[in-house]
Design brief:
The complex is a heterodimer. Chain A is of the alpha+beta class. Chain A is built from 25 helices and 20 strands. Helix content of chain A is 39%, strand content 13%. Classes of the chains: A alpha+beta, B mainly beta.
Chain lengths: 633, 76
């Protein structure tokens, strides 16, 4: 009888070309049941302080969660983690698709990749057969031909390929990993880390079954069937199936929280051209799914009109539409789809790339980037041709694209002047397309998250604002006592945030996507507990699940503290403290005083020292990771 | 009036329409109207009437109004 894990890590040292197996026991896994927890543990244990993010000594950890690969909708995710080249802090990004489950079914809980190959290579895994193969002929190629070539070489058209592309090879600091050509570990620059190791791809095929790993496979399967049956009867999952994340555009615009022109405004005059109804009419070609997921939220697009957009790399998600659309002042949905395709072809994080384009446009409009640097083009807000040119230049590090490939923080330092003010980042990672001035808890998340600005680190404020809503009921179950208005920036908001962050962090440990469990609530809190118990056999309750999430966050925080990060790094861009220029929240900005007070309350709620923003030894001990306190002395 | 059932709210319409044209002989409470359409008022997070943000409590709508309602929106 299993406990949901294969109990094995695959270690690959690319410098020596050495492959080895590490086995761990159940007691260890109870403490670090995969994903973010196990990845952060490995990074803390196996990287030296100050390790060069793009050097051979950085560790790239690719780690499944306990539930990854279970036949339950949204149990698809794996974590990619390393010291981030973008932030130089703890770096992490989760992806769905098929690669993580396939790795698990091949017998591996995860991979730990170290060193640097002398020449480009890829790793081929078929169950316990692992081989490092020459990839010189694949270097410089785009993901689609690379995947086709690897499948051809291995004689297996179903092998799942995780890879980085030209962005990663060129060490664009926000380069992504891509699997099955459409699922991304986008954030934190994991593609650059993989590229820096001369590692082009990892192909995996597994013949195992999750039922052989689970404690109670019948209970897991029954839960999976029960949840799948309910997808069309649950309004939120039905909505995701019908529209996917592009369905978010018009609501955020109506609420005045659609980031527009580099976060100057909260509503976009061209919204009707980019909202879901336009997407369905102009772009949509099909709907697709991740492994075993009945929601099917992925969009496929194909365009042969003003732009040619292939259906190879998947369709733009909300973040990508927001980033290349309103935040760049662009209302041409086909151009946005083209930018999304370029991010797939070049393996770039579309959130950071969109934000860098917006930054470059604002710099141009203020004369900080000149026509002499753009090849004569006018990089103004609203110019779709400029947007596509910038993405292309970033990927190839052409001209000033070489600087923009470093991210907004580094680029602003070089450009100087007001450019620092235009760089919308936290810890060097660019803001996602959610406006903290209208949902301030999202701002707390941007500020405190160890990997920099991220929108998937906790519930968004509107989900726990309305006392009778389904989403508030989930928040209440997790310990949020009172509904709180979305713009209330207060100590009690910070305390609620801390509880809910632990839940989201737990999801990143265990392998659940954000779109299944509460707050989306297709999968209720109690059912998540049920899933963990059925998979592992452990007698965990929801408080223990929250503790798992908290443990993972604390490990990441210790990593950052060890690298010298402190409270001063948990900051937000100045612009967020200024009033929005238009939209339903016109004139509204965040209060610095309220923000600092809330952050102090947040550190206290987490058991961290508000002065240093470090976990206290007592808190680490209470979480079962007292050993980590030794790394802070 | 024109009513937009934004986000997942059009799930509650039997025909899954995103926009409904509703003739109104007299002003009505928006809460009552949503209840008649089986859209749960408890889930309304964002409401605009003629492009301006409004609160559901006390909202009264008339023929000719353009109303948009959205549920709470999480990450995307």
């Amino acid at each position: 009888m299993g406990y949901g894990s294969t109990g094995k890590l695959l270690r690959v040292d690319l410098t020596r070309g050495a492959i080895s197996i590490e086995e761990f026991d159940e007691a260890f896994y109870r403490l670090y049941p995969g994903g973010k927890a196990l990845a952060a543990y490995l990074l803390l244990r196996e990287t030296a302080p100050g390790v060069d993010p793009l050097g051979p000594d950085n560790v790239l950890a690719l780690i499944n969660g306990l539930i990854t690969g279970a036949p339950i909708s949204t149990a698809t995710r794996f974590t990619a983690a390393a010291r981030s080249p973008l932030t130089t802090a703890y770096g992490e990004s989760e992806a769905g698709g098929f690669w993580g489950p396939e790795l698990k079914l091949a017998g591996w809980e995860g991979m730990v990749i170290t060193g640097r190959a002398e020449r480009p290579v890829y790793i081929a895994i078929k169950d316990d057969q692992v081989e490092i193969r020459d990839a010189r002929h694949l270097w410089g190629q785009e993901p689609a031909p690379v995947q086709a070539a690897i499948r051809e070489e291995l004689g297996d058209r179903l092998t799942r390929v995780l890879q980085t592309g030209i962005g990663g090879e060129n060490r664009v600091r926000y380069a992504a990993l891509i699997n099955d050509l459409r699922h991304f570990n986008g954030r934190s620059g994991m593609g650059a880390v993989m590229g820096s190791k001369n590692l082009k791809a990892i192909a995996v095929r597994g013949a195992g079954k999750y039922s052989d790993l689970a404690h109670d496979p019948q209970a897991v399967a029954e839960l999976g069937r029960r949840i799948a049956k309910r997808v069309k009867e649950h309004p939120q999952s039905w909505d995701l199936q019908e529209k996917g994340t592009p369905g978010l555009v018009s609501g955020l615009n109506a609420g005045g929280i659609l980031p527009t022109r580099n976060f100057h405004a909260g509503a976009f005059e061209g919204v009707d051209k980019i909202k879901w109804e336009a997407y369905e009419k102009e772009l949509l070609s099909a709907r697709r799914s991740c492994y075993a997921c009945a929601i099917r939220c992925k969009r496929e697009v194909k365009v042969d009109d003003r732009y040619q957009v292939s259906d190879v790399y998947g369709g733009p998600e909300y973040e990508t539409i927001g980033g290349f659309g309103p935040n760049c002042g662009i209302d041409d949905l086909q151009a946005i789809a083209k930018a999304n395709e370029l991010c797939g072809r070049y393996t770039l994080d579309s959130i950071s790339t969109g934000a860098v384009v917006a930054f470059a446009m604002e710099c141009f409009e203020h004369g900080l980037i000149t026509p002499a640097q753009t090849g004569g083009a006018a990089w103004r807000f609203g110019d779709a041709a400029a947007m596509l040119q910038i993405v292309d230049w970033i990927a190839h590090r052409q001209g000033i694209g070489d600087l923009l490939a470093e991210g907004t923080r580094r680029a602003a330092e070089v450009i100087g002047g007001d450019a620092r003010y235009f760089a919308m980042h936290v810890k060097g990672q660019e803001l996602p397309m959610h406006e903290p001035r209208g949902k301030v808890g999202v701002g707390l998340g941007y500020a405190i998250n160890e990997g920099g600005a991220d929108h998937l680190v906790a519930f968004h404020d509107p989900t726990y604002a309305n006392p009778n809503s389904l989403t508030f009921k989930a928040a209440a179950e997790l310990g949020v006592a009172d509904p709180l208005p979305p713009r209330e920036l207060s100590p009690r908001k910070a305390e609620a945030y801390a509880r809910l962050e632990n839940w989201s962090s737990f999801g990143k440990v265990i392998g659940f996507c954000y779109f299944g469990p509460a707050p989306r609530s297709l999968i209720q809190v109690g059912e998540v507990v049920e899933a963990v118990r059925a998979a592992s056999g452990w007698d965990f309750d929801k408080d223990e699940l929250l503790r798992i999430g908290e443990r993972a966050t604390n490990l990441a925080r210790v990593f950052n503290a060890r690298e010298g990060l402190s409270r001063k790094d948990d900051r937000l861009p100045d612009r967020l403290f200024e009033p929005l220029e238009s939209g339903a929240l016109q004139g509204i900005g965040m209060s610095r005083e309220e923000f600092e007070t809330a952050m102090t309350a947040l550190y206290r709620a987490k058991g961290w020292d508000p002065a240093t923003a470090r976990p206290t030894p007592e808190r680490l001990a209470a979480l079962g990771i007292g050993w980590a306190a030794d790394l802070l002395t | 009036m024109q009513l937009h059932l934004g986000g997942h709210f059009n799930w509650y319409d039997p025909q899954k329409r995103a926009w409904l044209a509703i003739p109104l002989a007299a002003p009505v409470s928006l809460r009552t109207l949503l209840e008649q359409l089986h859209v749960p008022p408890a889930e309304v997070a964002i409401l605009t009437v003629n492009g301006r943000l409004a609160r559901l409590e006390g909202a009264v709508v008339s023929d000719g109004d353009r109303v948009e309602v959205y549920p709470a929106i999480g990450g995307g």
